[in-house]
Input
Amino acid sequence: MNFLAHAFLAGDSPADQLGGLIGDFVKGPLPAGLPAEVAAGVKLHRLIDVFAETEAAFARSRARVSPPRRRVAGVIVDMVYDHFLALHWSRFRAEPLDAFTSRMYRLMDVNAALLPPRLLEILPRMRDADWLASYRSAESTALALDRIGLRLRRENLLRGSGAELVGDYAGFETDFFAFIGPAQRFAENWLRER
Output
């Protein structure tokens, strides 16, 4: 769901980036045919998710989500943070966002045989609409949340949840900046020590 942040936090290794991109689609034990270096990227994705859930700024952002949507607050915050990462991309990387996202789509195309079926299915739409770079726009981020909500089995609490971002934009942005530095250090340390 927060593809951009996971690809960004995975560092510069294409295998780690691919693992970061597919992490939300790989549940439970890692598939037997997944190369070890890509599996390591999936592991980092999972560790970043655990880190986020225990990090103070992320918790503050979750608390900003209105009570009726608290059950899906983690998903909302993930997407809101992708919005701010895309919006402020040049503060974090010299490579332009459009060049980075093009490279990520090529990476998935070249490794199509390793992609989980659901990701393989949505990849053409993802690439054609440039979902990763589109998160720069709050409106596109809201649409992405609506799309994710269509896949929910229970009541769709994500429909219209872009209003959460608009309702406390400055607060979420402050939380994002408090979160992203520690998240980068966490990922960099793990990548260095593995």
In short: The chain has a mean pLDDT of 92.
